[in-house]
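Support request, please re-run this one:
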Amino acid sequence: MTDLNGDGATGIEDIKLFLERNPHTRTRLTEGGDFRSPECIALLKQSDIVVTNPPFSLFREYVAQLMEHEKQFLIIGNVQSITYKEIFPLIRADKMWMGVTIHSGDREFRVPDHYPLNAAGWRIDENGVKYIRVKGVRWWTNLDHGRRHEKVPLMTMADNLRFSKHKEIKGKPAYDRYANYDAIEVPFTDGGPQRLRRRYGRPHYFPRQIQP
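Re-run finished. Output below.
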């Protein structure tokens, strides 16, 4: 996308202008819309960047498909995807990370008329359209963004033990160690010792706060 309206920046207004100048149509899929269908795979191969909301229950399989076809993507998924054994290695290998927006809270999704309203939060608007609210929603992507490159201020191990704002660290003689693994426990994102050249455990929410 380029600066179509000449305001010196690219944004949503340029996208609106592009769509106005380039009328588009919607074509109904003939194979039901399953991302595993030959029809959808053929469309995937034509794409440059995939932006979608895949089924959360099939998130692992969908990400695997994107990786297989080496696509850039921006997709919605659950924050607990961090803990999936199929997803965490991709985060560790710098092949996917969290997006910039949606840092906390839940998000609203429109659902079909036949969808049961069993969610903790839901509503029906004045036109009878159903919506549910889903907790723990995040963007997942392999598109680079500036937040990934922000440096995190850290203290040395000695200074953390003396001055940390966390009572679980401050004043202790040393960091806790795991009983079954040779590593120390770092229970907070900002509690990591600076320039530490050894293995240590981080909380599972670490990638939410620090983009690897």
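Residues 25 and 163 are 61 Å apart (CA to CA). DSSP finds six helices and nine strands in the chain.
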